[in-house]
Amino acid sequence: MGSADGVARPRLYLIDGSGYVYRAFHALPGLGTTRGLPTNAVYGFTTMLAKLLREESPQHVVVVFDAPGETFRDGLFASYKANRAPMPDELRPQLGYIRKVVEALRLPTLEVPGVEADDVIGTLARQAGRAAVETVLVTGDKDLMQLVDERTIWLDPMRERRCGVAEVRERFGVDPALVPDVLGLMGDAIDNIPGVTGIGEKTASALVRQLGPVEAILDHLDEVERSGVRGAKKIRETLTREAETARLSKALATIRCDVPICLDLAALRYPGPDPDKLRPLFAELEFSSLLRELAPGGPVADVEWTAVDTPEAITAALPALRAAGAMSVVATFDSVRATAARFETLAVGPPGGPVALVAAPEEALPTLGPLFADLAVAKVGADLKALRVALGRRGLALAGPAFDLALASYCLNPSRTDHGIGALAEELLGEPLEPAATPAVAACRAARAAHALRPLLDERLRAHEMDRLFRELEMPLAEVLAEMELAGIALDVPALAHLSTEFGTALERLMTEIYALAGCEFNISSPPQLRTVLFERLNISTRGVRRGKTGLSTDVDVLRRLAAEHPLPAKILEYRALAKLKSTYVDALPALVDPTTRRLHTSFNQTVAATGRLSSSDPNLQNIPIRTEEGRRIRAAFIAAPGHRLLSADYSQIELRVLAALSGDRRLGDAFRADEDIHARTAAEVFGDRSPADGRRLAKVINFGIVYGMGPARAARELGVSLVAGGTCRS
Fold first, then answer.
1. What is the average pLDDT score of the chain?
2. Distance (Å, rounded) from C-alpha 46 to C-alpha 667?
3. Where is the domain boundary, 430, 458, 487?
4. Which burial class, exposed, middle or buried, applies to 119 when counting CB atoms under 10 A from its CB (0-12, 13-18, 19+)?
5. Binning pLDDT at 50, 70 and 90, where does residue 299 land?
6. Are residues 49 and 111 in the same domain?
7. Could you tell me the pTM of the whole model?
8. Which domain holds residue 704?
9. CATH code at 589?
């Protein structure tokens, strides 16, 4: 979420405090102190806040709680929320501690007598929007999705879900403004909103999507019968009978945005936690991990830094950095795509000296450019490739000796998931970087920690004989990858548009064939509906089919096995594969073409795959199929500039060559020395003169399956043979 004009705007985080308290209570049953005090709600709630502060670094925030007593909804409907059980006894004593945690974190709070938290949040969100303030609704409540607009997003940090207008539209099938209409028609058992008898979410969504809000539906009931919704005639009769209930239910589901309060952004500024209050409180609650995270203290937290906010101040700071011969660089961006990102924060500092916080990084880059390009100044940071790409997009270079902390960490432990400065500081320095009041302060702390981490990682690289890998392979590779990301690749957008139409037609044809085989229409993408068709309507045997939490599995492996019993599973697999190609690549990639370069720019990740392989993200280009005709046609849309060619290169069975050297297998070694096709040779060894047409492909499965420990069962599935035959081929 960002402003269309590129101007940085304030961002306000509105936290649904009451909602998260109950959610935490039910999600973590049984937690308590050694003294018997229940703490599950306090711990879950505090964990959510810690995650939010850590990942979002909010500058303006307020925790909104429900006030005790009745609200206007109780006046509209006496049975509103009548289904809710009384507050559990284990929750009641935790409420005071929750308030203490919020106070110690110095988070502003708000509750309005006679008003639900949702309505307070709605009012503040709308006032913020009118003041050009971006708003983040921090909640797990789907009802609040109705507030989402171009300046308001919905965020559930615990489930890591972030919803804008498009995501809400995907969730409910309608625009956010029409969500109350869907909720009103379907009702809500938790809040005891009655809804309309017989109308569930799917039907409600379809009606609102086709006919508009509840009022329009009730004014044009004749249109309901022509809507094509299943059971339309009966639904019309029910709506005629329950029109007032429908209007009431919508009113109950609609969040008010006119509560008599005024947004005071200055009063909601977040100053950061109060460690002196947090430490004794967390000690009492026995929250040791949260204590280390939110109130650790230490020299990194006490980093000395100076804001440089003018060209003159930046110029004055350069001599000290040059004289030190090294500087740490910590930058954060407003996008994970470095080729399109703008700098949000930038902190640089010499070893042992004060960190310089660059107040306006984008404007300061021309002045800092010569320092970044200075061959005599070493640079230390984490993910320097992203910095290199961001600078390259601005015509600047990152040169001189470099030490990437993330790459060093990856060389030492490729299975680790977090190679950032914060995680490394906690492990190697015993000093986690506590959530800062602002992203700028966090960057300064990271810049200070970077210098302390470098010698420790350097020493470990040498001790584990990884220093050569780091310096001669990974670090130079990062520079090459940065150039590749900057260059991007051309995309034949018209070809993909044509392919989209073609795939769409093919999907419609497949859908018709699937319905004919099933004997009915159903949602092909719905596992429950597919399960019903396969195992109940068609009565396909369930023998050997895995059963999960939601019922019998309909995953790829299951459908492949069932394809031998009925033609429908094969068609489902074909439909799924084509639909995924269309949505993931054919339709998505053209929208990601950079408007300036007119090329597609991906990110190549060095520190993700534990095997040492690269991965691609934003967008992911590594999984486009190569063996299918559809996949090859998508790949053909990646084109070279006029006068150039694209070259595809790969290692020649590198794993098998290593296997031949380590095992000393004579036939394998002879085949490589004779420059034979190793897979064709294996096919001849396994199948003899009776090698099938796809014998080489099957042999390839066998060869690499042996390298990676594939057993008889997996071999049988991959080869499409019996378990006994799979074991025989593997042997």
1. 87
2. 62
3. 487
4. buried
5. very low
6. yes
7. 0.55
8. 654-730
9. 1.20.1060.10
